[in-house]
Specification:
About 35% of the residues lie in helices and about 30% in strands. The protein is of the alpha+beta class. The protein has one domain. It has a four-stranded mixed sheet with strand order 1-2-3-4.
C-alpha cells in the first residue's frame, strides 16, 4: 500500500502558499504536515501553470514519501527541501501532480 496524501487546508502566505496535509502511511498511521510552496517552485513543477497549487504540494509529499519513511518526513517543511535533498525532484514531482 502506498501512503495517501490529502490537502485539508490552504492559505496564501508571503511568496506562495501554506498547506496543511494529512498523510495516511502504509502502517495505518495518520500524520499531519505543514508544507510551504513558493510561487517559484510552483512555476517550476507546474509547467503549464494550470495545476492547483494544492496538487503540487501533494505531489511534493508523495515524492518525499518515495524517498523517506513517513515518520521521517518533517511535520513542517518547505517544498524546496525536496529539490535540495534529491537531484531527481525537479524531474519527478511534475509527473506526480494530479
Amino acid at each position: 500500500m502506498v501512503a495517501q496524501v490529502e490537502i485539508v487546508s490552504e492559505r496564501e502566505s508571503r511568496g506562495g502558499w501554506t498547506f496543511t496535509a494529512q498523510v495516511l502511511d502504509d502502517g495505518g498511521s495518520l500524520r499531519r504536515h505543514e508544507v510551504n510552496l513558493s510561487w517559484a517552485d510552483y512555476n517550476l513543477w507546474s509547467g503549464s501553470g494550470a495545476d492547483e497549487p494544492a496538487e503540487v504540494a501533494a505531489a511534493v509529499l508523495r515524492f518525499l514519501l518515495t524517498k523517506l519513511e513517513a515518520s521521517a518526513v518533517p511535520a513542517r517543511l518547505d517544498a524546496a527541501t525536496a529539490r535540495r535533498l534529491y537531484p531527481d525532484a525537479d524531474a519527478r514531482i511534475p509527473r506526480l501532480v494530479g
